[in-house]
Amino acid sequence: MLASGWPIEVQVILATGAMLAVASVLALAIGTMLRRSVAAVAAAVVVIVLPYIVGVTGILPASASEWVLRVTPAAGFAVEQSAPQYHQVVGHYGPPDYYPLAPWSGFAVLCVYAAVALGLAAWLLRRRDA
Amino acid sequence: MNQPMTHGRNQTMTIARHRLPRPAGTARAGTAWAGLPDALRAEWTKLRTEPGTAWILTAICVLTVAVGTATAAATRCGAGTGCAIDPTKVSLTGIEVGQAVVAVLAVLVISGEYSTGMIRTTFTAMPRRWTVLAAKAAVLTGLVLAAAVVAVGGSLAAGRLILAGNGISAAHGFAVVSLAHGPTVRAAAGSVLYLALVGLLALGIATIVRDSAAATGAVLGILYVPPVIALFLGSEPAWQRWVERYTPTNAGLAILNTTGLHDLVISPWAGLGVLAGWAAAALLTAGALLRLRDA
Questions:
Q1: Which one, out of A66, A122, B110, B267, has a CA that is 20 to 30 A from the CA of B32?
Q2: CA angle B26-B106-B54, nearest 5°?
């Protein structure tokens, strides 16, 4: 999806780096908003890592897992998807090998969360006393 | 004439010495847990007057019930598909989130004191470090148990109402979420104990690590990373089985299952025992380090 001719591995490597970078920006924004280290670390883990675990480990029924991997920041993990999905092959197209969103769509969901959180953090930082 | 007077004075002094108020945690050398009631009262006062405690306890209840409710609402079973749904386990999904909040409370109980310097006051007033740790563990356990009872009760009540509405009911062959159902009672009581043990594990780790942010990261890492590792060990079944049997969350959460008990890699109570072992190891290491290190 990066550019035709590039091996999928290159896309996964670059996209994973970008995904971690954006996740760290989201964590920075959460930390700025909450101002307390314990609460910030816990909130970042609960918002980014927990939905991924709940989505991929099959704790939830399939419909609920798909929903979790679409609408939470864990949608960004879709960039890990490297195997193509064939419409003519009937199989289990579920996590952790297959995600409900296409790689860059999932990445975009994470970016939206990071951007909104960063905006909110900047606004709060200006408005509040240190 | 002299002798009785001396005798009388000595007796008076002895009585007076006995009536002196005893400084907390210092007197009666040789008794293992001397000063524990005083330490308990001190820890209770500290935790009760901390502004965050009430919010955290509320968050444990609200998040657990909210996530359980949302999961139950998203759970459907199409007619004739024969899906394997464990209604009790689905209702208690919120435990996955609630345990993170329990960990936050447990970390704050000890790391909060290290970050403000309060720990030096604490150990000056109560030099017996095992006593202080025991008091912290007891007060934390009491609060977590109280919050967990509300969280688990609320989750099960919500699951019972919502799942029946989604067609997951006795009429369709599912075990209804009910306290008349033995495995459900075991899962309910077990998940309350699970949250208390997670709190004790987190307290132990935070006492070892001391820094609050690092402790939170370490605790959440121990809780949340092994399930992901187990997931990717599919090509190494022996390792996968080991991780699923002996890591705190994988083993401990076996207590939530009420159906398919023969397919579990570890039985519910044995799984909770594994978590208890982790918590005990963490607390013993923490207590030994507290004694060895300066505050």
A1: B110
A2: 100
Among the listed ranges A69-83, B118-132, B280-294, which one has the minimum average pLDDT value? Answer: A69-83
Assess if residue A58 is contained within a domain.
Answer: yes
Q: What number is the ipTM of this complex?
A: 0.80
Note the pTM of the prediction, 2 decimals: 0.84
For residue B125, being part of any structural domain is answered with yes
CA A55 to chain centre: 11
Residue B294 CB burial class (10 angstroms; 0-12, 13-18, ≥19): exposed
Give the model's pLDDT for residue A104: 87
Residue B161 lies in a domain: yes
Mark yes or no for CB contact B107/A49 under 8 Å.
no
Count up the domains in chain B and report the number: 1
Domain coverage including residue B247:
36-292
Does the distance separating the beta carbons of A38 and B217 come in below 8 Å?
Answer: no
Q: Contacts of residue A57 in chain B, CB cutoff 8 Å?
A: 227-228, 231
Q: What is the CB neighbour count within 10 angstroms for residue B49?
A: 8
* pLDDT the model gives residue B9: 45
**Is residue A117 in some structural domain?**
yes
Report chain B residues whose CB lies below 8 A from the CB of A49: 220, 224
* CB of A56 less than 8 A from some CB of B: yes
